[in-house]
Amino acid sequence: MMNKLFRIRNPIKRISISTQLFINYIFLFILLIVVLSLAVFYGFKHMENSFGMFFKDASDIAENIDTYGLQGAYKTSKLPVGSYIELLDSDQRVIDQYKSIHSIGYKYSDEEFDKLALNSYQYQIIYMSEEDNDNMLLIYNPKYPANEEEADVLARRILIQAITLFVVSILIVLLIYAKFTSKTIVRPIKEILEGVKTISMGDYSKRINYRSKNELGYLIGAINQMSRKIENEIGLREKSENNRKRLILDISHDIKTPLTNILGYAETLRLSDNINKESKNNYVDIIISNGRKANNLIQDLFELSHIESNNNTITMEDCDLSESIRKILLDYIPELEDNDMSFEFDIPDQRIMIKMNSQKLDRAISNIINNSIKYSGRDTTLRLKLKDLDNRAILIIEDNGIGIPADLAKDIFEPFVRADVSRNSKTGGTGLGLGITKAIVAMHGGTIQLDTSYVDGCRFIISIPKKGMGK
Ligand code: ADP
């Protein structure tokens, strides 16, 4: 049910939190690989810069000497300031040099030469090919560590730098990841919390305006739906509370008038010693008619509340609606004729079986016919048509009298709602007739409405489910 509800409300493409997290982890994994590669690349590059001559520079220079000579090779290799190169013969004597501190002819002692060759990274010795008579190339580069200890320190420093780079980058990546995750998970939770807080404080008009593609989006939809429902319920409750207040006011008002009349005329009768018979009868008639009014009102009120509150306990029997209506109409014919009203009835011959309480349904239909007689009166026509549909019976009752304004169509079934209050006081209605009719029709699982498209008078359309189709 939830899914159905939110498929309608949230047309955006959904991704579950688990898929979302999986995508995030993949994203994080790729970032970690990139960071690790960067750190390793940085370390290697630095190492190569510091010790690279052992692998590359020296042999390059040796090769370049054949082509460009000593000076040319030095320049091509872009050796740093302070470095020099020397060409030594097999006796370790300088036979050529560029930028060296030793002039040509300088001879290294064995001890001195061993020290250079074995202990220092700054001196690089390359044995040239045989054609060059076992000459040696000595390259001095002050940029490289002077000894093993210095080399160790340098290597350690590069390692620490690479690790620092890795750790800092990891922190940055985690920060980005946290932001990314927060956007998809933490942010909607924050919005939900704020919304729920506002709603719990009684502001049911609050809606959470955040679109989330994962399950939190469903949750937001459900919370919004809930607050919308509560808002509606509160609106309905307020409306019914206002209705109740209005009802009490209407009842007190409608009962006050006849009671005041009864009290007034009874008092007059008691105080008038020599009153003639005619006046006395007149006063008594007024008292009786007002007593009736009050009594009718109380009875109608009782009936309405009885139907509304005992809706399910009123006995219902399978009856033929066509037959019941025929009987009601037969009883009304003399009254219609007395009021110079014509009538047209169209009741099908076949039986229309419904579950009904015939006494109540009789009352419901009588209320409408009585109104037509009361409000339309002479030289008008009452029409009643019963239709047998597949699963419902439709009863149309219409007259061509003064009608009810269309803007009252909805409210006319509410207690004490009248189209014309002054006219109504003359007809002596309680203002509860249509309310009772509606409650009885509802009790039978049906509906009643005033047809606003009909403008020649009043037309009520009652629809009642047939046996086994409704209540
Ligand atoms: P009442 O006791 O006043 O007749 P109802 O609930 O039966 O109360 O009717 C409500 C109001 O609807 C009436 O007061 C009247 O103004 C209007 N009404 C009902 N039926 C008709 C009708 N057939 N023609 C004109 N007005 C009608």
3D structure, described in words:
The chain has 471 residues and is an alpha+beta fold. Helices cover 57% and strands 13% of the residues. It has eleven helices and eleven strands. The chain has helices spanning 2-9, 17-51, 57-76, 110-119, 148-200, 215-271, 277-309, 321-338, 358-375, 421-427, 433-443; strands at residues 84-88, 94-98, 123-127, 136-140, 317-320, 342-346, 353-356, 381-388, 392-399, 447-450, 458-465. The strands form three sheets. The protein has a five-stranded mixed sheet, with helices on one face. A hairpin with a 5-residue loop joins strand 1 and strand 2. Helix 8 runs parallel beside helix 9. 20% of the residues are buried. It binds adenosine-5'-diphosphate (ADP). The site of adenosine-5'-diphosphate has 23 residues, from helix 9 and helix 11.
User: How much helix, percentage-wise, in residues?
Assistant: 55-70%
The helix-strand sequence is HHHEEHEEHHHEHEEHEEHHEE
What percentage of amino acids are in beta strands? 5-15%
| Largest β-sheet summary | 5 strands, mixed
Mean pLDDT: 88
Shape: rod-shaped
* Structural class category: alpha+beta
Ligand catalogue: adenosine-5'-diphosphate
Quick take:
The chain is of the alpha+beta class and 471 residues long. It is built from eleven helices and eleven strands.
Descriptive key words:
471 residues, alpha+beta, 5-stranded mixed beta sheet, 4-stranded antiparallel beta sheet, rod-shaped, binds adenosine-5'-diphosphate
